[in-house]
Write a structure and sequence with these properties.
Number of strands: 3
Structural class: alpha+beta
Number of domains: 1
Shape: globular
Mean pLDDT: 80
Number of helices: 2
Order of helices and strands: EEEHH
Distance between the termini: 23 Å
Strand order of the largest sheet: 1-2-3
Helix content: 10-25%
Largest sheet: 3 strands, antiparallel
Length: 71
């Protein structure tokens, strides 16, 4: 299980946005039970729609959806 450790709203500056035009993204730092860190970039609206914030458990179905899309 991973938890959200930090949310960085870097897309609000001048960084390149790889998502839909006008869709703001955030970088999310995740930490598992062993202290391993990983990172995801997701739409800010998606975090808010799912009521995710620092300390929230990261939805595993999101990770599975990303793996399916990469294949």
């Amino acid at each position: 299980m991973k938890r959200i450790k930090q949310i960085f709203d870097g897309d609000y500056g001048c960084e390149e946005n790889t998502h839909a035009p006008g869709e703001l993204t955030v970088s999310v730092t995740l930490e598992d039970e062993e202290g391993n860190l990983s990172y995801e970039t997701v739409p800010d609206a998606w975090l808010r729609q799912n009521a995710l914030d620092v300390g929230s458990v990261w939805p595993e179905e999101f990770a599975r959806q990303k793996q399916i899309r990469k294949k």
